[in-house]
Amino acid sequence: MYDESLPVPSPRDPTAWGTVGDALADAEHEAVGLMLSQRFGADTTWRSSDAPHELQAPRVHAPDPLAHLTSDVTEDRLLHAVGRSFTDMVALRETGVRHAPDLVARPRTPDEVEAVLGWCADAGIACIPFGGGTSVVGGVTAGVVDGPVVALQTRAMDRVLEVDTTSRAALVQAGATGPSLEAQLRPHDLTMRFFPQSFEMSTLGGWVATRAGGHYATRLTHIDDLVESIDAVTPNGRWSSRRLPGSGAGPSPDRMLLGSEGTLGVITSAWVRLQDQPVHRGGMSVTFDDFADALAALRPLVQSGLDPANCRVLDPGEAYLNGAGDGTRAVMVVGAESPAVPVDADLSAMAELLADHGGEVGTVRIRGRQLSTRDGDAADAWKQAFLRAPYLRDALVDHGMIIETFETAATWDRLGALVERVRAATASAVEEVCGQGIVTCRITHAYPDGAAPYFTVIAPGRRGARASQWAEVKQAASEVLLAEGGTITHHHAVGRDHRPWYDRQRPDLFATALGAVRAVTDPAGIMNPGVLLG
Amino acid sequence: MYDESLPVPSPRDPTAWGTVGDALADAEHEAVGLMLSQRFGADTTWRSSDAPHELQAPRVHAPDPLAHLTSDVTEDRLLHAVGRSFTDMVALRETGVRHAPDLVARPRTPDEVEAVLGWCADAGIACIPFGGGTSVVGGVTAGVVDGPVVALQTRAMDRVLEVDTTSRAALVQAGATGPSLEAQLRPHDLTMRFFPQSFEMSTLGGWVATRAGGHYATRLTHIDDLVESIDAVTPNGRWSSRRLPGSGAGPSPDRMLLGSEGTLGVITSAWVRLQDQPVHRGGMSVTFDDFADALAALRPLVQSGLDPANCRVLDPGEAYLNGAGDGTRAVMVVGAESPAVPVDADLSAMAELLADHGGEVGTVRIRGRQLSTRDGDAADAWKQAFLRAPYLRDALVDHGMIIETFETAATWDRLGALVERVRAATASAVEEVCGQGIVTCRITHAYPDGAAPYFTVIAPGRRGARASQWAEVKQAASEVLLAEGGTITHHHAVGRDHRPWYDRQRPDLFATALGAVRAVTDPAGIMNPGVLLG
């Protein structure tokens, strides 16, 4: 079953997004610095990461039976101290981290998870489930918790335990990362086809716990729809749902865990739906005078039933940043794919529809079988542009910039106004806080009834003050976003950072109900305190 | 907004499935009787419904401020006494009903719902939310509740309050039935395209509360996926979610109400997603040597990405009952549709795939714009075959038959064995209990990872004993169904009838959690007691 030829990643850098080997090289840093100083005329000198981390001493020690599963090594604790938001990166690379989990536990089985949770509950120790640690919303921040903390690292459970090629589904342990999971599925010629930007580092358990969204803008792209069943361990016992393709038996147990962000228990495995590799593929770029025009064309496209496999929309600034234009026009990238029939007719129909709505259609490309994410060509290009972004972000942090993203979703009737008002409020806050900066927007997910705008802010920051500078910008943006009818998060999750707005967004009775659920699964209230609840 | 030309149905028959006008005519009864006596050689004489209903006297009276919203008229109470399962029909048409709600309340606004619930909670009166009353699982049975009962009838709230043609969504009150809702959407050239078999009688609120499934076997066919937001009134206050096309902000509040079956509160309205009418349509019938062969072809079809708009599979007996064959071959009915591009190429590809898997493909029909369900042709044929079935069931009840259906879903790896073992166990129970009978199976919903088999039992019953006869058959079938990895219900809901198996199917901790949620929204435990919980 298990493919011994799993990729062996280069070691992870505890103060960076990902692995040591994939960080930007010196020459790249120089090029980035030059580009930034030309654009902003500010001090964008590269300073290598040498933040003064002074972690508090561990306040607890594991009891003997669990000692072999735990670590209090400083580098381990640092790696589990925070997530990977901009604020986290500033702490990791500039201002230093002072609070880390007292211990990192690495259970290898559900029984061992149960033992760790049992100990934590008895001893009143908070437990933060930790997969890839890629939260950009304060979902795994140990320092904000009062008292001792254990980070429960799930990565030791990273196997695909069973593949059902008949139903095209697999039982996957929670700690499997994207590359590990796909490598284990490859011998079966199946793919989960779930590619969040954190793909390299994040884990199945994290995806389920945070209701993650994949790279594709349309069709099956939410982890919610890929889950057949979930196994979890809570401080109050096991939770295991029945594997089903569909069911109407009461409210869905799985939907109670999806999005629970570690507050109800630890997801240990899930049966997930798989797909064949697409055989027929094609795509095109379409440009528009401006973002509003592109949105006005996107809506009929996703309402047409033509069902593109992907369709991203970049505003002119975003297009420029991504090397997809000169910054004067908005760009829509449309993809079509099918395992069964050629996509030419669909692409032609889409091109015609988009031209009718003011789009200038570029060359339509038809391609054959999609290559896997390891095998070069298109997949490699995607990897470069998409998976590489967080590494670039590390570099911009080192160059003294503020660089962060936030996202939402809204129905079409509100979308245009929301985008412009959030953009204006954010730009105004950036101007006030940083003097200058860039605010761009792209659409990451598109639905027949709405879409998900994703904003990027890049501005020269004040070293030593960037975390609070960003907090001010984020506050301004979030207020407008909520007022304009958006959700505080479409696929980044709530964590601790989004709490003020999440608390206003959700029904109050639901919040109380969720608290009651937590009191059942976690009577001592040790699971990821401060996230979603409490 | 509201279309004054809503269809005015003929009066509802309180002891039948639907309206008085649509019941079978005398000549039809004679034909049915002849057919049954030929098939079963048993006493299948038609006896018109004259069950002795002796309802208990109302035990409570509404306080003055609510008096104008309530009724204790006998016919009203009888209409709200039970649902429309076979067992209910036997009670309504043969053995008589003794227990009915003490009062029927008809609030017209959420405020009035709140007032009714407030009174019930204060006075310790059970409240059963009641839409169309079409439950086939004991979801609205008043008689099994200890103490006084108020049936909260939502039908007075049946308006489409707002249509957002940009996002293609509508705010619909919970009491709108299928025909009422579609009639109000028609002026906007939009459709909800949600056609459960109970379409004529059932309501939006009931669909949401029971996680109903529509007529289509594939694509958007579950109410879960059509809901943007939900407004509910609970005994502990309002619950109103934000209207969003997608969100990753914590566990979904809507998914907690979807499937709650009236146990958490009363759904008063929901924003639902709409669609354009399809322009391009086509279909074909494909026959197979047997049901197993048809299932073996269905799986690659739904895994192909060809994405049929519908695909039903009937076993030979089911095909015969539906006039779709001579009972020697299994029949697959495949439909394709698109609002944008012709479906010819897709249909050809599907035909080729099915032929490769042993199917004998009949004529491929290509049709134009789908007619509405009122306007004859294909839609009328569907209405006859599908919506008419419950009326036919009433007739079979009067002819002394046992006639009932049950359904499940399972992943493909288990499906073939499940179907055959459930069929064998059911046939064996029918043989034992009734001496003879028919057990047929069709697939009502098909997924890439599994499908939903739907069983029909028709057997000559013993007048006066049919309810217990059926209970014995159902018990045998349900045990095997659960043991073979199915869900106790795919789209019929849990109600009271499925409790023994539902309780074994769901995670125990989830059951406790759901109870905790209910304690928040309904501290007095008045909402639909016995359903899902307690």
From TrEMBL, chains A, B:
The record marks 312 as: Important for enzyme activity. Substrate binds at residue 393. InterPro entries: Alkyl-DHAP_Synthase (IPR025650), FAD-bd_oxidored_4_C (IPR004113), FAD-bd_PCMH (IPR016166), FAD-bd_PCMH-like_sf (IPR036318), FAD-bd_PCMH_sub2 (IPR016169), FAD-linked_Oxase-like_C (IPR016164), Oxid_FAD_bind_N (IPR006094). Keywords: FAD, Flavoprotein. Pfam families: FAD-oxidase_C (PF02913), FAD_binding_4 (PF01565). FAD binds at residues 129-135, 261-267. GO terms for molecular function: alkylglycerone-phosphate synthase activity; FAD binding. The active site is at residue 454. One of its GO terms (biological process) is lipid biosynthetic process. Its cofactor is FAD. It comes from the Bacteria. Residues 97-277 form the FAD-binding PCMH-type domain. Belongs to the FAD-binding oxidoreductase/transferase type 4 family. PANTHER family: ALKYLDIHYDROXYACETONEPHOSPHATE SYNTHASE, PEROXISOMAL (PTHR46568:SF1). This is Alkylglycerone-Phosphate Synthase. It comes from Euzebya pacifica.
